[in-house]
Design brief:
By secondary structure, this protein is an alpha+beta fold. The chain has 2 domains: about 5-65, 434 Repressor (Amino-terminal Domain), CATH 1.10.260.40; about 70-190, CBS-domain. The protein is about 50% helix and about 15% strand. The protein has 11 helices and 5 strands, in the order ααααααββαααβαββα. It has helices spanning about 5-15, 20-25, 30-40, 45-65, 70, 85-95, 115-120, 125-130, 135-140, 155-160, 180-190, and strands at about 100-105, 105-115, 145, 165-170, 170-180. The chain has a 3-stranded mixed sheet. Helix 10 (about 155-160) links the parallel strand 3 (about 145) and strand 4 (about 165-170). The chain starts with 5 loop residues before the first helix and ends with a helix.
Length: about 190
């Protein structure tokens, strides 16, 4: 960590959108002292500048932190285990999605994806019979779950092997994150830089 010069404090504080009061609280000094430093009316000790620099660095890290809640899609589109494959296909087509969590009540019991359906058809299964089958006959295992406050970096490795990750709060599914959501995030971050 680099210790800021007194002349850099205001620039960093305003760039992060912090007030003098907020910075003072984060750094453990008074707002009046922050004001004096920024005005050039105080010659702070190195230890004080170090506290202020650390506070601004923490604030910078928090600003860059992206949580699952910020990128998740909500409400989710789901299907029940006793629904037909035909309904799953209709929902996927209608919402332009490639997978659905299977819920019984609020509990996730599995998932169904277009890849699974296409695989069955490619393997020679009769399409008319397939459309009438219930989701429970073809569903895969449940999608991984995370909390809404989890850092988005936790989701990357999960999406390497899974089509989606469900966001669960207090036992209830509140959102979903797919690879497409990560691509949208990359676009937003690129636009900011």
């Amino acid at each position: 960590m680099r210790i800021l010069r007194p002349s850099e404090v205001k620039v960093m504080r305003t760039r992060l959108g912090l007030t003098q009061v907020q910075l003072a609280e984060l750094a453990g000094v008074t707002q009046a002292y922050i004001a004096k430093i920024e005005a050039g009316d105080a010659d702070p000790r190195i230890s004080t500048l170090e506290k202020i620099s650390k506070a601004l660095e923490r604030a910078t890290t928090e600003e860059k932190r992206v949580t699952v809640e910020q990128i998740m899609a909500s409400p989710i589109v789901a299907i029940k285990s006793d629904d037909r494959i035909e309904k799953a296909i209709r929902l996927m087509k209608s919402y332009d999605i490639s997978q659905l969590p299977v819920l019984d009540g609020e509990a996730q019991v599995g998932s169904i994806s277009e890849a699974t359906i296409v695989h069955k058809i490619a393997a020679g299964e009769n399409m008319h019979k397939l459309l009438r089958r219930s989701i429970s006959e073809m569903m895969e295992g449940p999608l991984p779950t995370v909390g809404k406050d989890v850092d988005v970096n936790v989701v990357y490795p999960l999406l390497e092997h899974e089509p989606a990750v469900l966001v669960v709060e207090h036992g209830k599914v509140t959102g979903i994150v797919t690879k497409a959501d990560l691509f949208k995030l990359a676009g937003k971050l690129r636009a900011k830089s």
